[in-house]
Every structure is written in structure tokens, then in C-alpha cells.
Amino acid sequence: MNDAPHYDLFWDAFNATEQSSGITHYLKNNMEALQSLGVTPKLCNHIEPDVIRRIKTLYCYRLSEAIPKERQSVIIFRGLSNINLPLYFLSQRPQNVRFVITIHDLIPMLYPQYVSKFQRFNWQVLFPNVLKLADRIICISEWTKNSLLEQYSSIENKIVVIPNGFPKSGQSLEMKKSSSRTCRVLTVSRYEPYKNLNVIVDVLRCDVNHDFNMSVVTNQVGIKFFKKNAKKYIDSGRLILHCHLSRTELNNLYSNADVYLQPSLVEGFCLPAAEAQSLGVPVVYLSGSGIDEVVCPQFGVGLKGQFDTEAWCTALCEANLMNGNRTRLDALKSFLTHKNSWNDSAKALKLLYDDLAKSP
């Protein structure tokens, strides 16, 4: 006998068609794992015309059109990213609808100087209302939860931490040899000011001995940034740019990398770092945010406090020496066995949905 409650599940899909967007990978991995448990969300991806893409206020109110007004069964609506809930319902909340929001990071709140005026407006005006409307708030890391509670302590009873999943790997990891030749460094990141991609250019400028070759997977804005600021390194082949890669192509880049570099000022979780670790690639990063929960301390280098370009170069060399170290690789394997898979995350999501569907 199946006692699982019945409900219709809707997800917003804002920005989920961009290959370089972390939300695209988050949605895909979440959906595949949930479908294996017999739960299939309906994506609200038909209400994203260009006229409202840049004005999130309109998008959040327009989301209300995705919820069928005539249905009496329980509907669970989940916003996949930070402020994507149908705020139209704040003043006239349907009894049969439950609302869930996913908080990845708090960039506009923590680093307002690195986002646009529109983004600052969205967070100042919309975010408090999103937190009011939400029945549950999913944080993807303990750091995200703690950062949120520092600003909104009254919502603690709504919060549940469901970390992103790590790709399967674990005990099958093989030991790489530390490279005595040029160190191959990989970064996977769209361009945003807080992503700090200028570090890559600075490292290449500082690298007079040509110790590093860089590969960067980014979006079109990132391509323009590097073509403007690092043309001579692109022309010499020391910086290779990629865009719109398939999963197979991306995995090949990870497998061929000696070190993964994530220079972001802050990360709620950092899926690329998780993927790098799962494929046995040491990670160099700026510590102090959710990425600390992703990188094995024995198989990565986290920079703290004030530092210069030389510190990044030193950290890359230090991380490269971790390749070929059996003790460090065994520590990584042990670390990964305690991390969520996407199936683990999906099971936690299903429990949350089932619980909400049963609630009055």
C-alpha cells in the first residue's frame, strides 16, 4: 500500500537554458535524481520572454500564471534560485499551494558593489517578501544557512539544508603524477565581478617562467572579458577559452587538468569544485564561504585574508604537488564517501515535498 501523498510539483526555470549557468546543471541533476524516485516536476519555462528577463520583479509576479487556479489538489511550487517565487500570492495565498525557495548564495546582500542596480533592487524589495511567502527555505550549504540567519533570524524554523550532490567517483579515483612540465589549470565559471576571473589574467602576467597553462569554460561575457584583457595569452596558446561544452567534453577537461582554480570571492556551494574533487583534481580557492564544505582540506589549498598574485601562483604549485601523493588521495576518497550524491539530495527533497503535502 502506497501512503505517499499526492501533489503536483512545479519548478521555476529562470535562466535554466544557459549552458554556462550553474542553475542549468542544478536543475538537470535534481530532476534526473527525482525522476528515479517517481517524482517529475513541471517546468515553468514558458513565461520567460525577453521583455521580462531583465526585470525580475515582473518575472516573479508573472510566475503566478504557471499555477492552475482551478485545481483543488495540493500544489507545491519551488523556486530554484534565490528570489523566484510568484509574489502575486503574498496578498491572496491559495490554501492548496505550498511554496519552497532555494537559496544558493547571498551575493547581492553580502557584496552589493559587485551586482547591478537591478539586482540590488530585487533583493532589497523582493527577497524579504519571498522569505515571507515561503513555507520552506532550502539552503544548499551550512554557510548559506548561517549567513541567512545572521540577517533574518526569525525564519530558522523554515530552513532545511540540502547540499548539492557530488558526482559518483569515490574509491575508483586513480593517482595522478605531479606534473614536472607546465601545470594545466582549469576554471569553470560564468563572468560576474564577484567571480574574480581577473586572477587568471594576473597569474599569467606574473608567470614569467610559463609554469601554467590555463583553460577556462565560461559564457559569452567571459569570452569578451578575456579577449579584451588577455589577448596575447590567447594568441600564444597559454589561455584556451571554451563555451557551450557537452558533459563529455567538460569531463575530459577535468580529467586532463592538474589543478582546478576557483578564484570567486564567495560561493554558496560551487558545483565545479565538487566535480573537480570527484575526478581527483586538487582545488585552489578563496576560503570563507560555502566552498569550504566542498573541498577536502588535504586535497586543496584555500587562501585566507589578504594576498597577492604571487600567493595564487604559490598555491597552484602547492596544489599540483598533491598529485601523486597517496596519503592525500586516500584522504580525498574518505572525504567523498561522506558527501551527498544527487540521489541523496533527491531523497531529502522528496521527504520535504511529502511533508509539505501532508501539512494543513
Characterization of this structure:
With 360 residues, the chain is an alpha/beta fold. A 6-stranded parallel beta sheet has the order 2-1-3-4-5-6, with helices on both faces. Strands 9-8-7-10-11-12 form a 6-stranded parallel beta sheet, with helices on both faces. Helix 11 links the parallel strand 10 and strand 11. Helix 1 crosses helix 14 and helix 7 crosses helix 12. The protein is globular and about 65 Å long. The two termini are 23 Å apart. About 2% of the residues have low confidence.
Largest sheet: 6 strands, parallel
List the strand order in the largest sheet.
2-1-3-4-5-6
Question: Which consecutive residue ranges, at least 5 long each, have pLDDT under 50?
Answer: 47-55
Strand percent estimate: 15-25%
Oligomeric description of these chains: single chain
Topology diagram in text:
Layout: E1 8-12, H1 22-35, E2 42-44, H2 50-53, H3 56-62, E3 75-79, E4 97-103, H4 107-110, H5 117-133, E5 136-139, H6 142-151, E6 159-161, E7 183-188, H7 198-206, E8 212-217, H8 220-229, H9 231-236, E9 239-242, H10 247-256, E10 259-262, H11 271-278, E11 283-286, E12 300-303, H12 309-320, H13 326-337, H14 342-358
Parallel strand pairs: 1-2, 1-3, 3-4, 4-5, 5-6, 7-8, 7-10, 8-9, 10-11, 11-12
Helix pairs in contact: 1-14, 7-12
